[in-house]
Amino acid sequence: MRREATVKASLAAALAGLVLWGGLPLYRHRHFGVPVVKGPGVTAVLKLSEFSKGLEGTAADTTVFVLQGKEPGGRALVMGNTHASEPEGMLTALIFIEHAVVEKGTLYVIPFFNASAGRNTRPGDGYPLYFDVPTEWGSKRFRFGNRDASPLDQWPDPDVTVHYPTKQLLSYIDARNTNRTWPGRPGGLPMERVTFGAMELIRREKVDLAIDIHGAETMFPVTNCIVAPEKSVRVATMAALTVKAAEGFESHVEPSPPRFHGLSHREIGDHSDALPFLLEAPIPFLDQPTGPKTVEFFLDGKDPFLLSLSKKKKLFVPYDETGWSLEKRVGQHCSTTLEIFRQFSRRNADRALVVKGVPRYAEILENGVGHYYADPSKAAPGTVLRH
Amino acid sequence: MTLQILIILAVMIAAYALSKAFRLSVELSMFAAAVMGGIAGAFVAATPAAGDLARHLVEGASTYLDVILVFFTATLFMTIVSESGGVSYAVRTALRVFGRKRLAALLVLMVIVLIPGALTGAGSVSLLVVGAPVALALGRLGVPRKKVAAILFIVAGLSAAAPPVNIWAMILCAGTAIPYVGFELTLGIPVLLLGSFTVLVLGWKKDPAAAADVPDVPEAPAGMNWWRVLTPFVVFFGLIAAYRLWPFRAPVLGLALPFVFAGAAALVVSPRKIAFLRLSRETVARLLPLLSTMVVVGMLQQIMTVTGVRGLLSFAVISTPLVLLFLLLPVIIPFSEGVLTYGGAAIIGIPLIWYLDSLGFHATVVIAGLSLLWPLGDGLPPTALIGRLSNMVTGYTGSYRGFLASTWLPWLVVTAVGMLMVLFSSRLAFLVRWSM
Description:
The structure holds two protein chains of two kinds. Chain A is an alpha/beta fold. Chain A folds into two domains: 1-31; 36-386, Aminopeptidase, CATH 3.40.630.10. Helices cover 33% and strands 19% of the residues of chain A. The radius of gyration of chain A is 21 Å and the shape is globular. The mean pLDDT of chain A is 96. Chain B has helices at residues 2-21, 26-44, 53-61, 65-83, 86-98, 102-120, 123-140, 145-161, 167-176, 184-203, 208-213, 226-245, 256-269, 276-306, 309-318, 322-340, 343-358, 363-373, 385-394, 400-405, 408-423, 429-435.
């Protein structure tokens, strides 16, 4: 009897030790702050809760960087980390925050749109907790997040998600997915408050263009593209044709399905005057039939299984030994975003948006993504925020 | 890379086999496979990094935390109802009313099992809520216990696939950006037909010895009546229905909390005094193997991904030639569910749907067809969640293999229907249109 008690106590102690040893890195991940260096173009820093009061003091509240030009003009919103497992959007948004100088119009940038998802991990999926982007001054560390908000911030999940306002049924997990909760509502679940805040920003500030930056699997048909509803198709098509002709990369236009609700490219356009666009670049790391999910694989996008599937024509993007690097993905997003601004401005001279200083595809391929991030330890006082 | 992953997979299989040889439980054997797989990964391919192994185990352990909570609260709720005498009262009344109308009795019992799973997307909820009383009723109708377990297993699986909530279809729709619409008739018709077929094929023949074998349904305690029996269920289904009817006004309770409230209602209306703490302890003890399976499956899934084993399996499926793939799907799909539970739908299902969609198959019908096959895997080891639950609520203690063998005919018919839906998905697209 006494021996049994000793064995049980020892096992319980071993289990507690394992939970502590394994749980501590998860705790640290949730509380890790990514340094964001404000560039010369940033004129104001707001919180999304200023547009959606229900977010105030919650982990879902997030930072909005405002880059106002000297001349009035058009207005655009750029969002990254709607899905924090697709961090290319956030990396692109940070390049805009550090380098963009707006000459005409105003740019709003939300780099960590689903802030809670950025502090969540992917149980069962074995992702790294962080990834380091090499720079000239060392490496800049980022959290690897999840597609959905953390259950620590929004729980319990409904047995099935009912989309507001259409009542379309969605998977239970989509209640925590900020690309299924548009247009949101002020008193709804935290993620509905996030999208409601962005909708309010778009409506109050009279935003003309809303760009939601994502990434997708190479086996996903809707990848390497600009998803656009009817009202945005003309600008999207011209942007796609121009980047292909002038910069040599493909980003075709996919129509936004009119009956699939909750997505940014559908609801922003239906509930405001803004033209929405959702950018997708292929992230091989997200595919299921791949080798181990390592940081190296995330950065270079090279995988032998995907290469083999590509030869069997089972991927939706061209894929060879060079993989699909982070530089390619972020470069595409920077160029496509700038091109959407340019195409819109050509057709709406009175609402033109002129943004300078942001590198394009070829420059990012040549210099690397990390080249565009300043060393936070050497940044001027008051210019570094941790998110 | 492939060789390294194959070595890791071999180590995991060897660890599992060795643990079983030492007569360790399924859960401990899977835990050993996860730990040894992680260690092999650290040594052979440096994935995971040795210092990161504990994090992966702990993170993986939380994968199915919600499911675990639902299992526990649902079982506790049903145990309270049973302890209060509600189950005895309901079964006695059902037998009195339907005892002589076998066809009606069997079909009504089948529909009763379908409803909770259809509403929640979890066959386990069907078994935990209505499994025990339906098992007793089937037993009193002269259905042998093994066949009762088989009926419950197949029908509970179908209930999980039935509309409006089908978790496999929802995972696939979420992962493939296909709207979760058009499934009502596409899933509803096959589920009703297959459920009727199962209950009639396995339950039609009456075995008087079997009826005698079933313990006499205990007398309901004095004061028990329909109001007391139904109130906890009204609370549960009322809370579920309230969110569907008024989704933007009703609070989001999930599944576990409605079971807690329903359990509290059952305690309040019980004509007997119930020792709640004792009952809770017993429920935990009874569920422990099942709950620990869920914890360990999450760990195993995480280690399989971080080492590349999961990717290799997914790669093997996707790179199989189409005709061979169709021949293998009836094995691969249930097997993936048996190993990974819902993870199988994400790992194999999502790339498979994209692939078939690109070849011109109708994605919604394909998803519906495949989602009839996944529940069958819930009877397969190592997890065998629904199979074990159906054994548990039935009180069947014979060989598990014998139980599985008794499901062969409905298993084959369900598989055939699911595969025909996949193969002829384009011709069945009218079901999707009619549903909308």
